[in-house]
Design the sequence.
């Protein structure tokens, strides 16, 4: 069983929809990262969380340490949000989920 | 700020040939990471440096992979000889230090071994 599980693995939605990507983990962590990876391969760090909630523009990330669960939300989604979103937890090192491939259709 | 700079962006080589990747981290970031990402999977750590010291290289296939970080700044990752299964994206990342600090990733090098 992977230490980090993301759902869904693939998500297709229409422009404007509210998007939620979930991440569950099974180990004690010191931080959780949400990352965005575009087809070219480069990774952009979106958020680092150790508790509560963070917001940046249309992106919101929440974490519940007791339930070992985090969510990434995208409001008013846009085709440029299409990417792979990766959850990674910091134990002794970063442990990555397999990613959620998001496609936003115009 | 330029961010984490990696080169080359793409590399195609024949099997058994050597290949090297270069990474310039964020200025002031003491910790540098090399990851390998296979298609459809999350990145896997190959090696972590604290300044010039490799503090975690347990996942580095040492028979064919080597890395160095001279002067605790730039780093190179080398594969010799490359095998077909080495085809992947090689990502470099840096952070201020190990721990709950922000990571900055490079654009990656996409290696294709034919």
Sequence:
């Amino acid at each position: 069983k992977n230490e980090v599980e993301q759902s869904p693995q693939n998500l297709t939605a229409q422009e404007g929809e509210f998007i939620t990507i979930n991440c569950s983990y099974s180990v004690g962590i010191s931080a959780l990262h949400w990352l965005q990876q575009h087809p070219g391969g480069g990774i952009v760090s979106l958020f680092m969380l150790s508790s509560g909630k963070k917001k940046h523009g249309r992106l919101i990330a929440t974490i519940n340490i007791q339930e070992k669960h985090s969510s990434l939300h995208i409001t008013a989604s846009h085709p440029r949000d299409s990417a792979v979103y990766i959850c990674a937890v910091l134990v002794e090192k970063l442990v990555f989920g397999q990613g959620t491939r998001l496609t936003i259709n115009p | 700020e330029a961010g984490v700079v990696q080169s080359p962006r793409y590399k195609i080589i024949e099997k058994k040939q050597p290949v090297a990747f270069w990474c310039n981290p964020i200025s002031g970031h003491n910790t540098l990471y090399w990851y390998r990402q296979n298609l459809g999977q999350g990145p896997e750590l190959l090696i972590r440096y604290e300044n010039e010291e490799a503090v975690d290289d347990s996942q580095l296939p040492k028979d064919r992979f080597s890395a160095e970080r001279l002067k605790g700044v730039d780093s190179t990752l080398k594969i010799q000889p490359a095998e077909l299964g080495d085809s992947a994206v090689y990502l470099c990342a840096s952070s201020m230090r190990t721990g709950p600090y922000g990571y900055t990733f490079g654009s990656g090098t996409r290696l294709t071994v034919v």
Observations:
- The radius of gyration of chain B is 13 Å.
